[in-house]
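Tokens in:
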């Protein structure tokens, strides 16, 4: 099973402490708070582990008790197990008996002080080492390319297997079923070791000592100090205080500069507002601000009593409508839903949205976009 304690320089936060080395020591005293989403993910990992061990015949343990178990989790775990078994068959092309390790403790102390982690699944054999990370969250799409967490797992896995098998490359996979995302990336063993020596080791040593400079970037998203971090504040306030050119209209270049930073600014501003609100709930007084009761809507005090009273005068108080696609699929299960309802599902084009050039979605034709999307209001799924 996975280790329950966390390393100062853990794999999941590696992108942050590699890019912002002092942040590791800055956040080490912050309390770890498990969200409902994290608890759900823990259940999903436990189910995947159980099912994979059962298929491999390495355990006869009873199914774990899961608080969040449902049809979606069941199907996600089954699909994950099928994917792992495909990789096992692929590994058998070069190795008669590849090794499969599940929820394996990995040690990275050779590269990062006091560092360790848990690999969801490793498939080891000659030529290729497979490293798979299961992510059940649906909030953030994760890419395996240049993923420092996966590269750390790969280094830990090589410590176990490099002396046993003739490994040439590492195949890394992020398996994210709820976002239909199976992201893979291959890196040669030599490239991985070069990254470890040239980048990882120097950055890890700085981070462990609390040295280096603070840097703001996308890695701030899950930083425990993100709300009150001065570097992040300076970075985002720079946009609001930018001394634009004197002409009354912004140039294209200035608009592009704002676009590149606006999402980070909005996220930071929301974090600050949420922080101030939560502190106010604890009794803190902010100069110029106060807590008030928000707007509320009328509601029934007793829905059953209302229904009885209305029916008594001959009026039907209920409405009947079709469940949404998401609700119906969850109720029926994905396989049955596709078999029974799939032929009736259509997916119109979504509203146009402006994204960074590296986004994987294809670019739409500008000339037809206005006509194609002018009548679209609300889309589901």
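Residues out:
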């Amino acid at each position: 099973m996975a280790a329950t304690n966390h390393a100062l320089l853990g794999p999941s936060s590696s992108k942050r402490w590699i890019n912002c080395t002092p942040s590791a020591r800055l956040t080490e005293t912050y309390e770890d708070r498990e969200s409902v989403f994290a608890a759900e993910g823990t259940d999903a990992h436990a189910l995947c582990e159980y099912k994979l061990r059962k298929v491999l015949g390495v355990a006869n343990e009873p199914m774990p008790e899961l608080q969040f178990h449902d049809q979606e989790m069941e199907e996600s775990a089954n699909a994950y197990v099928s994917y792992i078994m495909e990789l096992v068959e692929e590994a058998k092309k070069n190795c008669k008996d590849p090794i499969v390790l599940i929820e394996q403790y990995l040690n990275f102390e050779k590269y990062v002080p006091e560092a360790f982690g848990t690999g969801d699944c490793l498939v080891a054999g000659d030529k290729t080492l497979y490293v798979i990370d299961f992510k059940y969250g649906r909030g953030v799409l994760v890419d395996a390319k240049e993923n420092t967490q996966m590269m750390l797992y790969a280094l830990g896995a090589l410590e176990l297997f490099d002396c046993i098998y003739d490994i040439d490359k590492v195949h890394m996979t992020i398996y994210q079923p709820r976002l239909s995302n199976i992201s893979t990336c291959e890196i040669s063993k030599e490239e991985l070791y070069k990254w470890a020596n040239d980048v990882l080791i120097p950055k890890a040593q700085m981070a462990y000592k609390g040295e280096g400079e603070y840097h703001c970037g996308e890695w701030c998203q899950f930083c425990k100090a993100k709300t009150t971090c001065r570097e992040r504040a300076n970075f985002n306030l720079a946009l609001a205080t930018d001394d634009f050119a004197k002409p009354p209209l912004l140039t294209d270049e200035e608009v592009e500069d704002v676009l590149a930073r606006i999402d980070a600014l909005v996220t930071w501003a929301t974090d600050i507002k949420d922080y101030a609100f939560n502190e106010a709930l604890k009794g803190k007084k902010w100069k110029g601000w106060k807590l008030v009761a928000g707007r509320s809507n009328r509601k029934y005090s007793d829905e059953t009593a209302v229904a009885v009273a209305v029916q008594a005068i001959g009026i039907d108080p209920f409405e009947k409508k079709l469940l949404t696609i998401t609700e119906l699929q969850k109720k029926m299960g994905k396989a049955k839903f596709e078999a029974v309802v799939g032929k009736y599902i259509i997916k119109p084009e979504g509203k146009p949205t402006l994204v960074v050039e590296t986004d994987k979605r294809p670019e739409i034709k500008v000339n037809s976009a206005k006509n194609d999307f002018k009548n679209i209001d609300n889309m589901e799924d």
